[in-house]
Write a structure and sequence with these properties.
7 helices, single chain, 48% helix, alpha+beta, globular
């Protein structure tokens, strides 16, 4: 989440929904610094407030926070500890405390997107990113053998049709039951293998 990028999107009238990046300065609408953890301590399950992000490049956004389940918190803390161990550092208290929350920043007005809808969108966005990662790693959807514009377009459409057909076949084969993500099952080789290039 780059503040300059958010400012550019705002200037173009584009909407965004991003996870809050730890360490980003947050200010109230009156311009006073906001202690995010102190504000979250007052929230029970879902909280929302209007703030300005960034010390220099101030971007007006809504902060929407959702308290996570205990299982999700434990999973997030395990990942955080593992990441910190690999980097040879200790996670900060702020990072550890924020693992209890899904904190999202958005410029979409409440009239268009409620707090609950922001949470759904944030979760779906991650699933879409995983889907694109699978498409790029398994189907090489981002690669093409030609420089001819029409051939590139034709190859892209062919790959997209193949991906949709493949997803449908896997769904039918699994009986519509998904007990794990496609990406993780592919990495562990439990449900399917990537088709040969």
């Amino acid at each position: 989440m780059c503040l300059e990028e958010l400012q550019a999107k705002q200037a173009l009238g584009q909407y965004f929904v991003y996870r809050y990046k730890v360490g980003t300065a947050v200010f109230t609408e009156t311009g006073e610094p906001l202690d995010l953890l102190q504000w979250l301590a007052q929230v029970e399950t879902v909280g929302e407030c209007r703030v300005w992000l960034g010390a220099q490049a101030r971007v007006p956004v809504r902060v929407v926070a959702f308290r996570l389940s205990e299982a999700s918190v434990n999973r997030a803390r395990r990942r955080l500890r593992e990441y910190a161990r690999k980097k040879g550092k200790q996670p900060t208290q702020e990072r550890v405390a924020l693992t209890q929350w899904l904190v999202v920043v958005t410029n979409v007005p409440e009239a268009l997107l409620s707090a609950q809808e922001v949470g759904v969108l944030a979760r779906v966005r991650w699933q879409v990113e995983i889907l694109f990662r699978v498409w790029k790693s398994c189907f090489r959807i981002d690669e093409c053998r030609s420089r001819n514009v029409w051939r590139v377009l034709c190859e892209l459409y062919a790959k997209l049709m193949g991906v949709v057909l493949w997803h449908w076949l896997v769904l039918v084969w699994r009986g519509g039951v998904w007990d794990r993500s496609l990406y993780n099952t592919n990495r562990k080789g439990r449900v399917y293998n990537c088709p040969p290039p």
